Amino acid sequence: MPQTTRRQFLALCATAMASSCLGPALARADRTSGPHIQFPTEPHERIAVSSYPFRNFMSGQTNGGRSVDLKDFPALVVERFQIHKIEPWSKHFTSVDPKYLEELRMALDKAKSTVVNIPVDSDLNPFAANGSERERGIAFNKKWVDVAVAIGSPSIRPGLGHARDPETSLERVAESTARLVEYASTKNIVVTLENDSIKSSDPFFVVKVIQKVNSPWLRALPDFGNTLAATAPDYAYRGLDAMFQHAYCITHVKSSETNGKGITVHVDMAKAFGILKRNNYKGYCSMEWDDRGDPFVETEKLIKTTLRYL
Predict the structure, then answer these.
(1) 194 DSSP β-pair partners
(2) Where are the alpha helices (DSSP H) in 163-258?
(3) C-alpha angle with apex 110: 106 to 113, nearest 5 degrees?
(4) What is the enclosing helix (H) or strand (E) of 118?
(5) Where would I find the H helices in the chain?
(6) CB-side neighbour CA atoms (13 Å) of 17
C-alpha cells in the first residue's frame, strides 16, 4: 500500500470533515458568519469525558499497574461511563504523526466516539513578551489546529501562558490570539479560551481578549472550578457568567477543587448550571474532575449530577 504523506493525510481529513464524516456535526461555514455546530439536544449526548483527570493512568504512566494509551481511551470511556464523546488533553497524545492520528481516528470510529475539543498546553508561550518564544508558541498551536482537523475535533483550547510572564499585555495576547484564530477559521476550527490560572487567565481578562479580537471563531471555555479555587465566590460566579456570555461549544464541569493552599472549595452546582442555562448555552459539557479521589468514581458522579441539572 503506498505511503501517504502528512500533508495528504491532513487534506483528506479536512475533506472528510467538510462532508460531515468526522466528529461532531460541523457544517461548512464561511469565515465571517462563523461556525455552525449542530449540537445534540438530548442531555446524555451533550456530555464528554476529559482525559485530564486520568493523567496518572495515561501516556505510559502507571498507577496501580494500569496504563492507558490515548487510542484506548474512547473505548474505556464507553465501557465505563457509556459516553461516546471525549476531550483528549494534548499531553496525552503519544504522537501527532499522521500514522498515530489515523490510528486514533480508527479507534474513535470503532468505539463510535468523537472528540469535542482539544485542550492544548506547552512550555511554549504564544503570548510571551519575548518575540521568538511567542512565534514558536503560535506555530505550535497552529499545528494543533491541524491535529483537530485530522481527528475531527471542532475546537482547540490554547493555554494563556503562565505567571512567568506576569506583565501580560492585552494587546499582545489579542494580537497572538487573532493570528491563531485567523488560521483556525480557514480550517473550520473554533478557538476557545479558558479561565484557567487566575494570574494569566482571569475570566474577565479572557472576556476582554475575546471582545478585542472580535471573531465568531474565538469563544470562551468556562470552567466551573478554576476561578472559585483562587478567588471569592461572588467574583468567581460573576466571572463564570461573563464567560458563558461568550461560550459556544465547550465547558468544563467540576464539583470541587483543592487549591495550592490545600483548601477544598465546592461548586454550587445548581448556581453554575443556572448560569449555563440563563445564557442559553447549547454546547458540550466535559467532565473534568480535578480533585482528590478516584477519577473513575468521581467522574461517574459528575455525569449523574450533570444529567440531573441538564
Answers:
(1) 221
(2) 170-186, 203-213, 233-244
(3) 95
(4) strand 118-120
(5) 6-18, 73-81, 98-110, 131-151, 170-186, 203-213, 233-244, 269-278, 295-309
(6) 29
Q: What is the mean pLDDT of residues 35-46?
A: 97
Please tell me the total number of residues recorded for the chain in this structure: 310
d(CA 185, CA 219): 12
Binning pLDDT at 50, 70 and 90, where does residue 63 land? very low
Rounded to whole angstroms, the Cα distance separating 286 from 121 reads 17
| pLDDT score at 31 | 64
Please say whether the beta carbons of 224 and 196 come within 8 A.
no
Above 80 in pLDDT, residue 254? yes
SS3 192: strand
Q: How far from each other are the two terminal CA atoms of the chain, in whole angstroms?
A: 48
CA atoms within 13 A on the CB side of 130: 9
Ramachandran angles phi, psi of 146, nearest 5°: -65, -40
For residue 168, the tally of other CB atoms under 10 A from its CB is 21
Q: What is the largest CA-CA distance in the chain?
A: 60
pLDDT at 152 over 50: yes
What percent of the chain is predicted at pLDDT more than 70?
85
